[in-house]
Every structure is written in C-alpha cells, then in structure tokens.
Write a structure and sequence with these properties.
Layout: E1 4-9, H1 14-25, E2 29-35, H2 44-48, E3 57-58, H3 61-68, E4 72-75, H4 82-91, E5 95-98, H5 105-118, E6 121-124, H6 130-145, E7 148-155, H7 165-177, E8 198-200, E9 203-209, E10 215-223, E11 226-234, H8 241-251, E12 256-259
Parallel strand pairs: 1-2, 1-4, 2-3, 4-5, 5-6, 6-12, 7-9
Antiparallel strand pairs: 7-10, 8-9, 10-11
Helix pairs in contact: 1-8, 4-5, 6-7
The chain binds NADP nicotinamide-adenine-dinucleotide phosphate.
Length: about 270
C-alpha cells in the first residue's frame, strides 16, 4: 500500500511538532516537508532535535506543494494565514487537515464549495481530542433538558483567538438542541466590562488565559436546585494526535469539507 504523503504547515509550533512525532510513528504516513517562513532548506527533524527526517523546511505553501507533492497538508499555524493556506492547497488538489482555529461560518461554506468544485476532501476540527468531542456531544444532549447553560474555556496565555474554536463549536451544538431562551436577569448590568463573558444566542462564554494551562473546558448547566458540569481537560498535546491521524486517513476518502471530528468518528 502506498504511503500517504503529508506536509505540515507550522511544524515548529506546539501542535505542529507533536504532529511531526505522530507521523514518525505511523508507517503508513510519510512526512515530506514542513512549511515555515524560517529555516529554509534545513531538515525539520534536525531543527526539532528528532534526528534527520529527510523532510526540509519550505518557506511557502505553494512551493511546498509543487516541489514535494503531498497528498495532505496538515495546518497548525495561526488564524491569520490558515484560510489562505487551505485555499492554496485545495486549488492545487491537496487535501487539508486543519486544527488551526478562527474560521467564520462563511469561511466554512466557501471552503466547502471550493472542495466540491475541485472534487477533493478537507477536514477542519476545532478540537482533535476524542474526549473533547464527547464533551460537546454530551453538552448538546443535556441542553435539550437543561437550557440554562454557560461555557467556561481555559487555555494557555499564548492563544491568539477567544473564545476558543472548541467553545464556539460547543455553543453551536448547544444552540441547535436548546429551546430559545435569553438567560439571566433582564436588568443585569456589568460594573466591569466583560464580567459576564461573551454573549452567544442567549447564553455566555467565558475565556480564561493563564500560563500552565493547555486546553480545558467546562459546560455548566443550571436548573432549579441542581447543576450539571461536563468537563474535559487536555493535559498535553499528544491528546490531539489520534484525532489528527484519523483525519489524515479519512480525508483521503471524502469529497467536500468536514467540520468537526465527531463527523468522522465511527
Ligand atoms: P504555536 O505554538 O504558536 O505554533 C504555530 C506555528 O506556526 C509557529 O511555529 C509559527 O512560527 C508558525 N507560523 C506562523 N505563521 C506561519 C506561516 N505563515 N506559515 C507557516 N508557519 C507559520 O501554536 P499552537 O499552540 O501549535 O497552535 C496552532 C493552532 O492550532 C492555533 O490556532 C491553536 O488554537 C490551534 N489548536 C488546535 C487544536 C485542535 O485540536 N484543533 C489544539 C490545540 C491548538 P513562529 O513562532 O515563528 O511565528
């Protein structure tokens, strides 16, 4: 069986470097190059301290795709560049598997259309941890019966976007199941701006940023005389890698954009 050729955009980052190690452990996958404006031409494995991998850094996505002909582009970069990276890949017939967050619903629709025009697949997962996907599913189920809810997400202090992609996805799933309701006292006033968090369709999302945290989320439901808390913690970035591995394999069999790991879990 031919190996799936994989390029990684952002291979020096916290997630990207974990993805390089994951590829090294899977004999059905071949890491061909890293896309990064720095370290042009140097071996990614050497720079990461993993030993030579015969996969160089290439400064630009288009050049990486033309020269190293990957089947899949894994992206763990930043919200500023990820959409253009995806467009470049899809137009070149290369299937993106994306963990970088910060997409709008319009972006998702546009990228899906582009995938279908090109006849290839793409996967964006705001959270590649299986436990986080279960947390979202359980929260959606609970929202049917307990519509009073708040989301508290906690991440390391270097995260660029707030709320997290996971919190937004959880909110969308809750919204799809929950009866319409604007929570809280109608005359509630904030004496410190932002104290009540971000407003999403009648409920609130709170973002905590501190060094020492990785990726954590609580969904708290309230009803008369009781609360229910559903919590997920990623305690290291290895937690995301079985999901990335699965997405690389699934994206080869699909046409159109899949948004969310739950759509490929059997
Ligand atoms: P990070 O450590 O800052 O890594 C990002 C990497 O991308 C850095 O090495 C950065 O290089 C590089 N980069 C910046 N601009 C680039 C460009 N134009 N082309 C190629 N590489 C570029 O961030 P992280 O913690 O790995 O997170 C990356 C993304 O994944 C974030 O959006 C985060 O929210 C998301 N994330 C997703 C999941 C999930 O399960 N889906 C889990 C965790 C994180 P410099 O440092 O030189 O700028």
């Amino acid at each position: 069986m031919e190996k799936i050729r994989v390029a990684i955009a952002g291979p020096r980052g916290r997630m990207g470097s974990e993805a390089v190690k994951m590829l090294m452990k899977d004999e059905t996958l071949q890491f061909v190059c890293g896309v990064d404006p720095k370290y042009n031409g140097e071996d990614v494995g050497d720079i990461l301290g993993l030993g030579a991998l015969s996969a160089p850094f290439v400064p630009d996505v288009r050049q990486a795709l033309e020269t190293y002909r990957p089947d899949v582009l894994v992206d763990f970069t930043t919200p500023h560049v990820v959409k253009q990276n995806m467009v470049t890949a899809i137009e070149a017939g290369v299937r993106p598997v994306v963990g970088t967050t910060g997409f709008t619903p319009e972006d998702i629709e546009e990228l899906d259309r582009l995938c279908r025009t090109q006849g290839i697949g793409a996967i964006i997962a705001p959270n590649f941890a299986i436990g986080a996907v279960l947390m979202m599913k359980f929260a959606q189920e609970a929202a049917k019966y307990m519509p009073h809810v708040e989301i508290i997400e906690q991440h390391h202090d270097q995260k660029l976007d707030a709320p997290s992609g996971t919190a937004v996805k959880t909110a969308e799933m809750i919204q799809a199941a929950r009866q319409e309701l604007r929570q809280g006292h109608p005359e509630e006033k904030e004496t410190i701006e932002g104290a009540r968090g971000g407003y999403y369709n009648g409920f609130r999302i709170h973002s905590v940023r501190l060094p020492g945290l990785v990726a954590h989320q609580e969904v708290i439901f309230g009803a008369v005389g009781q609360t229910l808390t559903i919590r997920h913690d990623s305690i290291n970035r290895e937690s995301f890698m079985p999901g990335v591995n699965l997405a690389i394999k699934k994206v080869m069999e699909h046409t159109g954009l899949i948004y969310g790991l739950e759509n490929i879990m059997v």
